[in-house]
Protein: Class I SAM-dependent methyltransferase
Organism: Herbaspirillum huttiense subsp. lycopersici
Amino acid sequence: MSPRRDPVAGTIAHYSSHAESFREGTWDHDVSQNMAALLDALHARAGAAGQGPFTILDVGCGPGRDLIEFTRRGHVAVGLDGTAEFVEMARAASGCEVLHQDFLQLDLPVARFDGIFANASLFHVPAVHLPRVLGQLHASLKPGGILFSSNPRGNDLEGWSGPRYGVWHSLEGWRRYLQPAGFIELRHYYRPDGLPREQQPWLASVWQKTQDPHPAG
């Protein structure tokens, strides 16, 4: 990492300057498998007594595509993004509450959300800050709440990919962050579905909030 570049500010600046093209390029992406993974876990948690509506925080909501779909399905969706242009787009497109916060300056209510949808977003958090960020997300979930994440997979390498900063987590590496943060793994899978592993660049995983986080080691 170049000492002259701030990972979060640099990544947000890139999205800010490419907001419209990003919206056009990603609006039709099919993430129904990921949404189903979160909602299935929420339904299982609720049991026969409840099928929602659930309150869901879309972390890194971008222009608001998934906020619209969660709302269409009858849930209460709240967005969060660090890019001002995305926040404006998401509010206008979805009519949802959208928080303008970057991942290193979260200010979330305690125990508000049933689920968190972190689709292609948390990999932007530098590894040194990830335990704190996960702790804040953990605190914002209701007891037994569900966290879904999807990240580009790799060998736990970290750094710049062009103008964006990221961490390419392996499954084992991702577990080393989530488990000490107070989550238990419910399932994981690789995307796109149905392809050989070498053609599946995305690692998706579903986690449930347990008791208070505990330090590793």
Summary: The radius of gyration is 16 Å.
